[in-house]
């Protein structure tokens, strides 16, 4: 009987297996066993049957039950990885008596995990270069979220010039919300992370000084997003330290209801981390707003000045403990007659809140208002390199005299400086070597002023200094609030350079210039700069300009 196909295939496969085994194993079983035993002997490992003849009893194993083997070690718990979806957990439980009807402050686990990662991360600066930011602490195993938050309360990170990861998380949430609502105005291909204004604002905000924005425009959605993200970062940091607030942390003053709606829309994504925002304006009834403020105490408050002052007068809200005040559209607010309202609001705020003023007016008319709001040292913020932007809140005083009268006037300029300025203000005289000012220099030396006509550097500790015009490029004139030009500069380029580099840390800058008939050719360009910056043009300078025009004709 013929064999079936299956039987023939099995026989064929068996022959193939034998042939493969013979070719792959060149050594016999006996030789292979000897080689394996030698390897175990050199490695210090024996079989169970060889244990007693190799290992000795120890104190830990007196009966040699383990045969010299080490204890079985379990692997440590793996590090927890980030969840794919954001999970919110309570950050700090708020006192129910302090807030009625409010939710617990919640924060994204993903965002705080990113904040606590200790590794080098890449970010893009305003020049498009990549900079590496390395966290200060060493890498540690991640535990439960409660332990992370407890550790953050003890070792909260210090403010750095570069934005924190939490700021970027807030920016990402705001940007996604704005793109969904078609409210993003910075272009489809651009991102808030690479916004040059925002990166510059972060550097100014990290200094702890008040900020004056002098671009000449009202705040855009992108600028509002950076301001709110920085404020949210500071607020959450203080909450982690155990601080509580009975007043709103931030007040954002706007000139109109439309602007209040715009700012409120940018604030909405921050609700997921427990930052509630309330918008109050004349477009809603007063009773409705009072009821809303009593039911939920907001962390951020967006309001028009007149409605906020009305609610404060009715004791519907307490703003005495406000930590940050933002004034947007100062020109529109003052033009509507609310200058006194701004002053009253600031008086109701006790302490020393951080201020950010969007100065959208270059006229000297509202300089006094800016000086009332910003009393301390400031940071100037502007991506507009125009003369009007860089010289904002600097008064340009121009007078025309004869040479003798001009010298006497230059000396007298020093007297109101001593009586009317604070001890932090500084005065700088800029002289020209080709114009004799011996009497002025002698008078200044008698008063103990620092004379640096021939030296390379200026004494930074002296309140009144004298420097040669040729050394302006190497002198930091940004620390001087008052600059006097007893002899006017020979070119307008030098004048513009002095105007745009002085008083960088103050809103009380004054530039005194004294002209004579020999400066007739510079009268016309000087008048143009004064009119461009919204400054007063004295009649004597107009006459000097007319004289120059008559000579040209």
UniProtKB/TrEMBL annotation:
For the region Disordered, give the residue spans. 1-47, 64-85
What organism is this sequence from? Answer: Lupinus albus
Q: Which UniProt keywords apply?
A: ATP-binding, Helicase, Hydrolase, Nucleotide-binding
Record's Gene3D superfamilies? P-loop containing nucleotide triphosphate hydrolases
> Which PANTHER family does the UniProt entry name for this protein?
DEAD-BOX ATP-DEPENDENT RNA HELICASE 50 (PTHR47960)
Ranges of Basic and acidic residues composition bias in the record: 64-74
Question: Which InterPro entries does the record cross-reference, listed alphabetically?
Answer: P-loop_NTPase
Q: Name one GO molecular function term.
A: hydrolase activity
Start-end of Basic residues biased regions? 10-21, 37-47
* UniProt name for this protein: Putative RNA helicase
Which residues fall in a compositionally biased region of kind Low complexity?
A: 22-36
